[in-house]
Structure formats: structure tokens, C-alpha cells
Amino acid sequence: MLLAASLLAGLVGEWLRLPKVTAYLIAGLLLGPSVFDLVPHDHHEFLEPLTKLAMALVLFHLGTQFPMEQMRRLAAKAIPLSLGEIFLTVVLVTAGLILLGVSGSKALLLGTLAVATAPATTMLVLRETGAAGPVTTMTGTLVTLNNIAAVVLFELVWLGIQLAGGDSDVQPAEVLATLGIDLFGSAFLGFLGGLVVSYSCELLSPGRWLVLLIGVCGLLLGISESLDLPYMLTFLVLGVVVVNSSGAAEKIIGQFDSIGGLLTVVFFSVHGSEMNLQLLWQVGTVGAAYVVLRCVGKVLGVYFTAPYASVSREVQVWLGPALLAQAGAAISLATTAKTRDPEMGGDVQAIILGTVIFFEIIGPLLTRRSVLQSGEMPIANSIHHTFGTPMSALRNVWTRLSGSAGLTGREPQTDRMNVEQVMRRSVDGIAESADFNEVLHFVENSHDNTFPVLDDRRAVVGLIRFDLLNQACFDPHEDHLLLASDLATPPEVLLRPSQPVRDAVELFRQTTDDCVPVVSDDSPHVLIGTLRRGDLTNLLIRDRNQKNRQQSKSDQNGDN
Predict the structure, then answer these.
(1) CB-count exposure of residue 79 (10 Å: 0-12, 13-18, 19+)
(2) Helix or strand or coil: residue 383?
(3) Over 60: is that where the pLDDT of 541 sits?
(4) CA 441, 444, 449, 452 torsion-angle sign
(5) What is the mean pLDDT of residues 132-143?
């Protein structure tokens, strides 16, 4: 039932341009106790191993996003942002709940849990949108830092509560030593697992990698559960080690795609069926305050810290909203609190379980909106992501239905789209005064083979192509002599946002570039985006499939 409902929800979600994660959660919610109550609660324990494996694979994939070079480059920006966001979130939630009459211990625990961000929800939305850029990268980094910080802060706060309550049985040194051992043990377990995966993949053929990976992940998950270690850290470290020690990291990650889709559906549909809408109403004013204060803390924490971290305006405005999803880590820590103190922990767990419903439904929508508004998600991926009136919705349904049935023709998307709807708007260029080492650093962190050179007004004055740069790399004496302007060729390959997509198609036929800069119509021609060959190819494939279906139906009608 869960898979069938998720299939239907996924189709509806595609039509409404909702994140698939949200569609799967809603499908599970409808089948759960809140609506039709078709999934018995005692069935969830049988599905738990699958959901944990799905979470483990998502965390592994998240870890692979951080090669050492990128970690060193991001640390100077990510750590201040994370500290600012964590500090303001904890302070606002704790202080606000105390003012509402919540005890100091409960308020502080809830402030600590507010730090956690749902890694599976957030990362799968980013992956689905195909987003790429500083907001996307920083989101993955802060998700990682947030969840590690939430675990550490929770244990420290719990220790402080016990000491403040006069618990003579508590030994601070022992508690801190246990926390250190757990974190070190979890990281060390992931480190060993990563080395095993990288070494074994050197010996085995790619056809056997999937069995190896699932076996290693299952073993690490079992050991973590048996030793009561935080498995989230284990799989994050596993991914980091693999991406830094294996020469085939991308192929290893690709092995998960064959089962990743199924596990994703299982994870979120099961998670949705566990939600109880009644808890959302029961948390009342305190729950509503927790939601508002957590949102404000994360958004303003990033916003006010951004100037000190030297990040772009897009990161400052849109990173906070991308971090609002909350689920697994917060629920796990709240359950731990209830186990240790049924009375106080029970109240904390009730608030977390009630508000998670809001964050898991709204969080993916805000994450998607963040990467769209920051220009890191192609606008073509969000076409029709609007809600009209009931009559317009009915008219749209009939139009699509009649078009699919061959009763009316449908104009292919590419025939009515322009470059602005397909381009990625969040792009950087190389300053024309940059020296050779600065150019190399820019290229090192780019996935393209063509790089725009900009003047002080961000107008495109030239293009640097990878093949020319590759030849220049062989002369070490040019490092301080060459400037970006010396390496650039005239910008003869450019697009305007108002041009039709067919112009872009023709342009890509004449060039080997992976991407083409998109500049403003008016002079100076300021860089406003880039159009990637891969994004355009995907759009053309969808259009071709649509045309083939229409032609097939037309031929069938003619035969009849």
C-alpha cells in the first residue's frame, strides 16, 4: 500500500511540481493513523531496518560531497555560519519558551534539539532539483555540522541538568569520557569501513561493488546499533574516506542509484505513516512558539553571520530557509531524553513529534524554493510550480488529459521556452586581473570547461577554455606573469535571456563548450547566468519523448 500510494503521490507531485519527498510523506500520512489508519503501528518495527539503511546511504552520499580540498576551502566560511546559526537558534528557542512558562531544563533541551536538521530530507530535495552552487554546497555542509553539534550539545546539556538537579551519582568526567569515546568510536568505525570499501573496489569488478557496499553498510549499521554508537557520524565519515581514498568514487556512488530510489520511497512513506496529526494540535502554543522561534533563529543566525564569513548575498538570504527540515536526529535525541527521564523527556518528545510534521512538510518546499530563488536550480525544473483557482486547475487537468489522449495537440515545451527558463542564475566568473594561480583555483572548483572573465562591472570581456589552460599549465614560469585577461579569448559564444531555446540548441551544435554564459541584453553585457549542455539535453530528451508519444497515438488513430 505504501509503495502504491507513493507512486500515485509521486505522479501528482510531478504535476504540481512538489518535491517528491513531500509527496511521499503525504502519501504515508494519509495511510497512517491520522487519516485512513491502514498501516498498523506495530508494522513499523519490521520496516525499521530498511529505513535505517536508507538513512545510512543518504548520509554516505552526503559524506562523499566533501573531498579534503573542498573541506579546507569551505571551513573558513561554514564554521562561522554554523556557529552563528546554532547560537541564535538555541538562545531564541530557549529564551522564548521560558517566557511562555516552560521550565528551564525543558526549554534548554528543546533549544538544543532545534539545532538538528533532517539530512535525508534536505539532501534528497537538493539532489532531485539538480541544484549546484554555493547555497547548495553550504547547505550540505551545515546539515552535517548541525547534526554533529546537536548530539554533542544534547549530551552536555543533559549533564548540566543532572548536575544542577543535585544528582550525586553523576560523574562529569565519566560522562564526557563516554561522549568522547562514542564520537571517536563512531568516526573510527566509519574510517575503517571507508578504507575497506576503497581497497576492495580496487580488487573487485564493478559488477560486484553493490553487494560489497550493502554488506559493509549493513555490517557498520549493525555494529553501531550493538555498541550504541551514533551511526549518523559513522556513515558521514565513511563517505568522506571513500571520496578521498578511492579513484572511482563517482562510480561507487552510482552503484546506489539502482536501489536508492526504492529505499527513498520506503523511508519517506514509512516516516509519513508514523506521523500523527493529532500531536500537531496537542502541542498548542508551546509547539507553535517552537516552530516560529526555530525558523527565526536559523534564518537570522545565517543572515547576521554571513558578512563575517564573506559569503555571497544569495547564501546570506537563502541558506537559512534551506535548513528548516527536521526529523530523524531530533526524534532520536528526544526518545533518548524520554528514556532517561520519562516525565521531562516525555514532554520534550511530544513537542518534537508534533512539530516534526510541520517541518517535514514545509521544510522540503522551502529548501526547493531556496535553491530556485538563489539561481542554483534551472527554472525549467520548476515550470508550473504554481497553484491556481479550482477552475483553472480543472482546465489544466483537462488540457493535459486531452493532450495525453491525443484529442488535442500540445506544443512542445522547447518551442515556447526561452533561455532564461533553462539557465542557472547563480554563477561566478574570473576577474580579468586574476593571476594564473587564482585562475587555477577557480577552475579546480568548477564542473565546467568554459569560464567567463569579468571586468569590474561583471561584464563578460572574454572566455577561458580548459584546453587552452591545460596547455599553459606546462610552463611553471608563467604563474605570476599571466593574467586571466591574457588567457581569455573574445566572448563570441554568448546567449541572451530572451532568446528562444532553439537558438541555444543551434549554438551548442557549433561549439564543444559544456556551458555558455548568459548575459544581459543591454550594454554592458553583465553575466547573469549560464546555460549547461546537460540541462538543455535533458529538456530536449523530454520533448522528444513527448513528440514520440503523440506521433504514436496519431498513427494508431489513423490505422483505426
Answers:
(1) middle
(2) coil
(3) yes
(4) negative
(5) 88
